[in-house]
Amino acid sequence: MRIVDQRLVRRARPVRHLLVLDSLLGALSAVLVLVQAVLIAKIVVSAFSGSSLTDVSTELVLLALAFAARGVLTWGFEVAGRRAASTVLSELRLELVETRLRGQPLALDGAEAGEIAATAVQGVDGLEAYFARYLPQVVLAIVVPVAVLGLVLVIDPISAGVMLLTLPLVPVFMWLIGRYTEERTRERWLALRLLSTHFLDVVRGLPTLRAFNRGRAQAEVLDRIGDQYRKTTMGTLRVAFLSGAVLELAATLGVALVAVTAGVRLVDGGLGFQAALTVLVLAPELYLPLRQLAAQFHASADGLAVAERMLELLDEPVSVSGGKLVAPSPRDVPVRFESVSFAYPSRPGLVLDGLDFELHADETVALIGPSGSGKTTVASLLLRFVDPVHGRVSVGGIDLAHCRADLWREQLAWVPQKPTIFHGTIADNIRLGDPGATVRAVRDAAVLAGADRFIQALPFGYETFVGDGGRPLSAGESRRIALARAFVRNAPLVILDEPTADLDRTSAGVVAEAVERLRTGRMVLLIAHRPELVEHADRVVLLEDGKGRTQVRDEVA
Amino acid sequence: MTATIRRLMLIADVRRTRLALAALFGVLTILFGVGLMGTAGYLISRAAEHPAVLSLTAAIVGVRFFGLARPIARYLERLSSHDVALRSLGRARAQVYEAVEPLAPAQLEDTRRGDLLARFVGDVDSLQNMYLRGLEPPLVALIAGTASVVVAAIFLPAVGLFLALGLLLGGIAVPLAASSISRRTSGGFADARGALSAELVETLAGSAELAAFGVERDRIRLVRRTDSRLVRASRRAALADGLGDGLRLLVTGLTVAGVLAVSVQAHSDGRLDGVLIALLALLALAAFEAIQPLTESLRELHATVAAGTRVLELTDRTPRIVDPARPLSAPVAPFVVELEDVRARYAPGERPALDGFSLRLEPGKRVVLLGPSGAGKTTVVRLLLRFLDPERGRIMMAGEDLRCYRQEDVRRLITVAGQDAHLFSASIRDNLLIGKPGATDDDLARALHSARILDWTLNLPDGLDTLVGEEGRELSGGQRQRIALARALLTGAPVLVLDEPTAHLDPPTAKRLVQDVFSAARGRTVLLITHRPEGVDLADEVVVLRERR
Do B243 and A75 touch (CB under 8 A)? Predict the structure, then answer.
């Protein structure tokens, strides 16, 4: 682990001016510290040699003003630093959203989405400390000691020498921080997360544990694991805290040595009182920025682990290539899967292995096969969420991978198995299919989707808030909203992914009727396992071992 | 707030001596720092009078002692306070767990929605900061501050008074002012955060649909808008947060200047030895280290109390299901289980989840309970396991009301597998052993064989030690159901309830699973609850539950 992570510093480029300002404010405040030291020494020495309060009143006022000015600078330091940090973090988040939406649109499951959102919103607190305090502190940790040493060198070269003697402890500290602390902090962070996940797992599984009369026994397990974790953590902390201790030792030893040597030379008359006192007040300031650097580093350690995760997400390979051609409309030309093979980068083995089949205009093709046979992958390929590893998907003879994904998707409507209901009104949700749709068009689509009746029965009808925090919808209701999206979109090619799965008979019936209306005059890919839907298909493709086998309908029914 | 803190300290219980030790090291760290600067100031001043070097020995020894002792005290303080934090974390987890365990699942229902459960766990975790960051710093500041004031007052009472005023102003007034301003802004900050989180979850989980419908750009614009709300809120928060530090420096400056003024005046009046001026000024400067973390720790305390209040809200619930004072002894199979005209409700005022429902389970019979979602099928499972008591009617086991038995006995005799069965992020073996702790590998193999998943398990590279992942995510839906089934079979309970074991399975797989269940559970009473037709033909009896309007 390096003192400064280049990848993160690069992210800070747009707010460089703020970070520079931050460092300037810090440096200015360091100058004031020097002024303070000189003033304190001057006041004490004048009083010592018999001056009255009025004689030193100017210095006293200046001293108070120096502190006040430092107060203002500190405030500015915090404000500028946080401003820079919040901008960088916001950019990181937006970049993440953009990458996911444009480059890897394959949806994440709820838990993973929740984890990433938590990382990007709450998790970045530590990262804020990194940008707002740590990075400016790196500059201060270099500038301030140099300035202090410079001033001391002018006042009393011997004290400067003494201070230099203690400085070799600093590289020792740097070594400790680099070699040991960082790695351990990271390990600890991981262990802590693991422990937290375990606790969450146990709490989630409480009903199961109770059903098996194992609820109470788990309390002991929790206690035991917690204690084990504490023991190992304390073991690493004993070493990790050493770096802080070494630095602290350098600081206090420096002060003590300066005080003792200066004191002895004062007695001999080799050094003036004011010079000695100034040097003494300055001595702690030599080490303070370094100690603060260490503290900020620890404070942002969690943030660095979070940053690691964010950068990792941003670095994930893009799943779709960009194309320039404009694909022809599937209203006029057939869509062909030509020996398409596909494998997910995260999983071993091919999901599809030389799949061949075609879709013609006005035709409904049912795709059937056991769970896990790759049916949904076919939909993802058609939607261009992913591109084939081998073979191609073509539209009117043009390879889809060479076409612009956004224009192609305008030709499609998709009803996923588990539709996402977004936070907003029901009308907003249906309008996802066509953002410009009129109230009338939305309602017509809902009627066709068999959704109008249940929507009208709601107290606020189409203006009912749904999605996160809104009225919960049943699986059947969500499915009908998704169908309404497809109707309002009025696209020539429709992909239906198990539209009746997990619905009870009544809901399944309503959805099946809607599907029947939707398929008229369109090219439809129907992923299904229910016989009542397959009956309406013109052709059935059975997906097995990654290959397709076209069957006539009677074989299946 | 103090009452809440006191209660939270009981939950995150740590021995008082450990707390005292950590605080002591904290106080020593500050005081050694004060001592170092004070004696060093004295040393220099005294030396300026050109005495014999020997007369400086005491001061020199003092400076060396404080210089060496402070890092050691700091090191010990950090270790002991982290030890306290980790201990309190462990205690908090165990104690909170024990308090909520009897509430599951019915009385924890409201936390299962969304990610509230994860937040609950996060809240419990944050209790570890209460002592480390919230309570220790003020305690240390109080003791170390008082000690510094007393020392200063011994030399010159007016300086002690001035220092006390400064420390009180900087240590109490400034943090309170900063926190009251912070809290005014932090409301907007928390809201903006919540809104952005929700929007990000939705965007990431729905990214495929957003892309499919070509509305990525609108979505990014929307997220950008919410994000900039958060950015603005966090900038406002920074204004307030920075204020605390700035004001503290101002107070420090005024105090040091005041202490100097008072000392200088006292010296001119002949009430103070000149060598003490530097000592007092540097002592005052060093004493402010004690109050430096207080703004932050007040903020931390507020956050912990907020989190702790949410935790207490759960742990304060009284379990509704309790064992009878004089329980009957458990019946011996075979016995009849029967629901008689049962009405059940999850919360008063809500509409009944089940009303006027009767069901008789004869020993060894296979009954299918069929009904659409929302008809109360899961409520039947809850009632049978005594996770819920009926409001009207009774549930009878071997002719006696279920409430007359111990809960443990009920759950030993009636067991469940199905869609809600939780698989723990552990090995297959660990998950099975929950059904029967101490079972041998042969027992496990027999149960897996009955659930028709033994061959698959044995073919895995790690066999029974294969990890199933969080919530069993590494397994397919059918495999999860079979493992859960094997676990239920392992208990040897005479009554087996299967709650939607075929949800999310395709029809052929579902059918095979039901067949296997029935043959594996031969000789036991089986209640299969489902909304799907598969397996209905294999049952001895089919009961239909109508959707209630």
Answer: yes
